[in-house]
């Protein structure tokens, strides 16, 4: 039975019902309909300080005419509930009546610590009086993934420059430079991932506005007046530089 389930799960979005099995599993897919047990997200393109990560929980078996609680635990070695993330109310963690799936929505919170370190939480399904864990893992073409454990990694850091960032205009990419531009000019961070939105003329406008702003704030600093400390590059402790 397990072999048949694993075989079918590789080609179908949802496993078919098998006999009297009543189970749940994490069913989170990426491009190509590939099942995954980890997601890595970043706040850098988010304008808000909260991000909702939906984790899909799927039924294997028959539906029921009543809500059925699902047992999910969340642990972490470096993230704290209430400070770094918020979980759904336990009363809402149910497979709804006549339903075949639901999303367990984890709310991630942006904190200063995420600018220098990645945090992680681990969700784990547990058997209860309503559901078993019929298939704890699934073998795919390239790897074996867990269907009962799901890892969420999150940060407020870049791994590479945004797709539309033009170094010939804005210079070498840095997170400090990016955040200064978005904050001072009130630009949606996600705009930098769309070349149709972040056009070259717009980037020239950004260059002119932000370099003028840095010059003004630097002059205030040199006069001993209050200034926007965000213009200081944390790597050099000097005002952020753009191409001349």
Please describe the topology of this protein.
Layout: H1 2-9, E1 23-26, E2 28-30, E3 34-36, E4 38-42, E5 50-60, E6 68-69, E7 71-75, E8 85-86, E9 94-95, E10 101-109, E11 119-126, E12 137-139, E13 144-146, E14 149-155, H2 167-170, H3 175-185, H4 200-222, E15 232-233, E16 238-239
Parallel strand pairs: 4-14
Antiparallel strand pairs: 1-5, 2-3, 5-10, 6-9, 7-11, 8-10, 11-14, 12-13, 15-16
Helix pairs in contact: 3-4
* Alpha plus pi helix count: 4
Q: For this entry, what is the oligomeric state of its chains?
A: single chain
Instruction: Kindly report the average pLDDT value.
Output: 91
Q: Give the N-terminus to C-terminus distance in angstroms.
A: 67 Å
**Helix-strand topology string:** HEEEEEEEEEEEEEEHHHEE
Descriptive notes:
There is one protein chain. 19% of the residues lie in helices and 29% in strands. The chain has helices at residues 2-9, 167-170, 175-185, 200-222; strands at residues 23-26, 28-30, 34-36, 38-42, 50-60, 68-69, 71-75, 85-86, 94-95, 101-109, 119-126, 137-139, 144-146, 149-155, 232-233, 238-239. Strands 1-5-10-8 form a four-stranded antiparallel beta sheet, with no helix packed on it. Strands 4-14-11-7 form a four-stranded mixed beta sheet, with no helix packed on it. Strands 2-3 form a two-stranded antiparallel ribbon. The chain is elongated and about 75 Å long. Residues 1-17 have low confidence and may be disordered.
């Amino acid at each position: 039975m397990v072999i048949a389930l694993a075989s079918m799960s590789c080609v179908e979005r949802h496993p078919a019902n098998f006999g009297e099995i009543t189970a749940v599993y994490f069913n989170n897919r990426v491009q190509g309909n590939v099942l995954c047990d980890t997601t890595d997200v970043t706040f850098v393109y988010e304008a808000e300080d909260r991000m909702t990560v939906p984790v899909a929980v799927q039924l294997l078996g028959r539906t029921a005419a009543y809500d059925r609680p699902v047992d999910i635990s969340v642990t972490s070695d470096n993230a704290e509930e209430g400070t770094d993330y918020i979980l759904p109310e336990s009363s809402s963690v149910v497979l709804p009546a006549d339903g075949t799936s639901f999303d367990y929505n984890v709310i991630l919170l942006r904190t200063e610590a995420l600018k220098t370190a990645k945090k992680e939480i681990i969700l784990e399904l547990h058997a209860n009086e309503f559901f078993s864990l019929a298939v704890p893992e699934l073998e795919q073409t390239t790897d074996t993934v867990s269907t009962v454990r799901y890892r969420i990694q999150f940060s407020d850091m870049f791994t590479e420059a945004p797709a539309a960032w033009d170094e010939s205009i804005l210079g070498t990419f840095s997170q400090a430079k990016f955040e200064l531009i978005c904050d001072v000019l009130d630009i949606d961070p996600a705009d930098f991932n769309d070349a149709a939105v972040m056009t070259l003329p717009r980037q020239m406008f950004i260059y002119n506005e932000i370099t003028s702003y840095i010059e003004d704030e630097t002059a205030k600093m040199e006069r001993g007046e209050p200034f926007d400390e965000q213009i200081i590059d944390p790597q050099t402790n000097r005002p952020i530089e753009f191409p001349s």
